[in-house]
Amino acid sequence: MRMGVSLWANNGSDNERFSALERGEGDPIGDGVDNVIYETEIRFGDLVEPLGFDSIWTVEHHFSPYTMVPDPLQFLTFWAARTERIGMGTMVVVLPWHQPVRVAEQISLLQNLMGDGRDIMVGFGRGLGRREYGGLDVPMSESRERFDESVQIIKGLLANERYADQGKFTRVPDVSQRPESFDLSIRPRPRNAKALLDNFYVAWGSPTSVKATAHLGLRPLIIPQRDFSHYMGELAEFNELRVQSGYEPDNCTLLLQCYCAETEELAQEGVQYFLKQAESANVNYEFGNETLKQAKGYEYYVDMMKAAAEGGMDLSKPALYNDVETAPIGTPPHCIEAIQTVCDTLHPDQILGVFKIGGMPLELAEKSLRLFAKEVLPAVHEMVPQAPITHGTWVATG
Known about the structure:
Elements lengths: L1 E6 L7 H8 L11 H12 L9 E4 L13 H11 L4 E8 L5 H15 L5 E6 L4 H6 L7 H17 L5 E2 L4 E2 L20 H5 L2 E4 L4 H6 L5 E4 L7 H15 L8 E5 L1 E2 L3 H22 L13 H12 L18 E2 L1 H15 L3 E5 L7 H14 L1 H6 L8 H7 L1
Parallel strand pairs: 1-2, 1-12, 2-3, 3-4, 4-7, 7-8, 8-9, 9-12, 10-11
Antiparallel strand pairs: 5-6
Helix pairs in contact: 3-4, 4-6, 9-15
């Protein structure tokens, strides 16, 4: 089983001040603050390859302390130059926020710069943050159409030397400006287009997105927002729809929050930072904001907020994506057992660990990562991926 590390550049310590400033209270931040986060993130990321992990991944977010990586492909280009053997992955590039021709060019360029023998794994998503959509001047109600069109264009440009697509949002090329040519060729051409297309992923947050994305030929990427058991049926449905669209069933890639310590008591030092990360998520996604109800295609999240409010849940308070009792947060034996349990449940063929979030000090994150690499990673590497989840395997295990 391969295992990567996801770098988030989160500034969880700034949540309270940032939220106060948005309410018109508090003091604005100055220069020389976020760069400290990046300095420690670079020192932490430099540990990933020497400690034996297989890849570096990152996210895309804008305009809040949640994760300060506004350009994941640029971020990974930096890491590709600092490493020699490991792969690079996005979780995710939010396609509605980008011009798809430019995304195709960035992906091809990164593959050429990395050379042969290294994987590029590109996860795509459609995003949820109202602030982010507004700041980038993209209507949230168009997210699903923009996502589908962008996937088609990116795949077309990478797979074919000459390509044209008259989409609703993007014309490739704009024939009114280029009447002499109805096709476009991105350069540099990929070193290996098939390797790129075979490693395109989709991350979904709501069950409704399963039906909307499985036909696109993208691999499943699980970034948990609910209990792991909820994803079993969704993976089975996703694979059934993949087969109906002419693709083979596939294993998922799975993100896990990880913190490793010599004792359970010491492991609790890390839990507070996962809580800080959850606070950052609430700040970024504004789940209590009424404007989400106006965005077409996000009805699941509106229903989720309504049910939470009716159940007495305070949406302003953080909720961990993964239950810390079942996540690999604890001693090395606990981490191994937790990862094996989730592998038995969701059948991933690749695990991604997020070890440094919520403003966690570098010394704590480094100590955790080193212990994990020494005591847990060898056991993960020995784990054998199980068959992809289908309705047959789900019924058998469920």
